[in-house]
């Protein structure tokens, strides 16, 4: 059994695909924990092009709600809220704010946590969790970041979910690569956003 952490920004579609694949493939064989990171914090000191600027704004606002939920209910609140949000936003195409409000209701969390969207008091907590992801990696990287038994890599980036027959094989390959001394990186050019079943353009 491997202990696997996946650091995700809730707005990142690549992270959503990776998280779905990882949770489905790990089943009861591996211990998987989803942890927050922030593209808004990552790009805080950098110019962002007009196409990506709205995503950074959403990252900052939604990240505050996750921070508020974790402060209220503990770290265990992150995964159920992330999954409920993703089903409504990444897969369902709902407006981000509406998707978050619905996700809070579905998890049974205090609906007033939605007010954290514009509450800058949570920015320090968001930054803290993001820096934890970068410290784990030992460098600067976007979402997602994966840690397998303490061996940490940027990615995996999936442009579409693996076919059912290959999903578990891919996870086995990632675990082998992570545990191989000297293995550092493997990457090829890709286009985005990824293909997500049922997804519409996020608003």
Report on this structure.
- This protein is of the alpha+beta class and 203 residues long.
- It contains 7 helices and 4 strands; from the N terminus they run βαβαααααββα.
- It has a 4-stranded mixed beta sheet, with helices on both faces.
- A hairpin with a 2-residue loop joins β3 and β4.
- α4 packs across α5.
- The termini are far apart.
Compact summary:
With 203 residues, the chain is of the alpha+beta class.
Task: Name the features.
203 residues; alpha+beta; four-stranded mixed beta sheet; 45% helix
Residue share in β-strands: 5-15%
- Largest sheet, strands/sense/barrel: 4 strands, mixed
Mean pLDDT: 93
Query: Whole-number radius of gyration?
Result: 16 Å
What structural class results from the helix and strand content?
Answer: alpha+beta
Topology, number of strands: 4
Low-confidence stretches: none
Span of the ends, CA to CA:
39 Å
Proportion of residues in helical segments: 40-55%
Give me the strand/helix succession. EHEHHHHHEEH
Q: Which strand order does the major sheet show?
A: 2-1-3-4
The number of helices is: 7
Shape, per Cα inertia axes: globular
């Amino acid at each position: 059994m491997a202990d696997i952490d996946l650091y995700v920004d809730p707005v990142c579609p690549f992270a959503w695909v990776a998280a779905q694949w990882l949770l489905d493939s790990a089943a009861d064989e591996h211990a998987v924990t989803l942890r927050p990171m922030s593209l808004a914090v990552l790009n805080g000191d950098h110019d962002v092009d007009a196409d990506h600027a709205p995503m950074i704004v959403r990252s900052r606002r939604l990240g505050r709600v996750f921070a508020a939920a974790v402060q209220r209910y503990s770290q265990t609140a992150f995964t159920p809220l992330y999954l409920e949000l993703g089903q409504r936003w990444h897969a369902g195409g709902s407006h981000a704010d509406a998707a978050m409000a619905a996700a809070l209701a579905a998890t049974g969390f205090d609906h007033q946590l939605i007010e954290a969207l514009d509450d800058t008091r949570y920015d320090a907590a968001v930054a803290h969790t993001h820096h934890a992801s970068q410290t784990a990696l030992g460098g600067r990287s976007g979402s997602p970041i994966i840690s397998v038994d303490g061996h940490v890599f940027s990615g995996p980036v999936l442009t579409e979910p693996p076919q059912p027959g290959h999903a578990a094989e891919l996870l086995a390959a990632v675990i082998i690569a992570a545990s191989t001394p000297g293995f550092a990186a493997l990457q090829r050019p890709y286009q985005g956003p990824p293909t997500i079943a049922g997804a519409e353009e996020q608003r």
